[in-house]
Amino acid sequence: MRDAGALATGLAGAVGGQRPHLLQFAGGTYASRVMTPRGSTAVTGLELMTALHPATRASEPDADGKRHSEHNPGSLGKDPVDCAPCEAPDGHPLLKDLPRFNVRGPAEKLFEEAYDWARPLTDDEWLRRNLVGIDVNMAFAAGANGLIVGLGAPTHVKNPVFDPKVPGSWLVDLSHVDLSRVKVGKEWVELDGSMLPSPFTPKGERPEGPAWYATPTVAYAVELGYEVAPTEAWVRHENGRYLDGWYNRLRDAYLATMADLGVDAALPPGDFLAAMDGYRGRDPELAIVVSAVKATVKGGLGKLRERPRGEGWRPGEPWRALSRPTWRPDIRAAVISRTRINLHRKIVKHAAFTGQYPVAILSDCVAYAADGESPLDFLPYREGKPLPGGFKLGVNPGLVKHEGTQSVLWGEGVREQFNAPELNLARYIKDGTVTDQDNGE
Question: Would you say 20 and 284 are in contact if contact means Cβ atoms under 8 Å apart?
Answer without folding.
Answer: no
